[in-house]
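Predict structure. Chain length: 133.
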Amino acid sequence: MTPRLDAISIITSDLAASLAFYRRLGLDISDGAESAPHVEVTLPGGQRLLWDTEEVIASFDADWQRPAGGGERVALAFVCDSPAEVDAVYAELVGAGYTGHLKPWDAVWGQRYAVVLDPDGCGVSLFAAADAT
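Prediction complete.
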């Protein structure tokens, strides 16, 4: 099993403005998506671009703060084959000296989820469907 880059996530303070910008760049974002706190678009090749409002991120990461100067608004997300793999990859990275930001947990949206910081301090999410075997 090898984690695979699955999604790029944008944390936005103004979802409507962000979606309008990316629509102008040709992304097919459904009408009315502005009313959702989380939006996903599948890109050519199958990877996804995700948007979450600051409020969504703060709802599960109590330490998250709006970054100064635009940093930490884009994060990478790697899909794992199972919840056990999320735990194992997290443990391996932390064991190798990388900083664990959010230990693996069973998220309310149906995934096993964890966040590790890359060497520059950017959040890298690890996730799997909670019911994956």
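Summary: The first strand starts at residue 4 and ends at 12.
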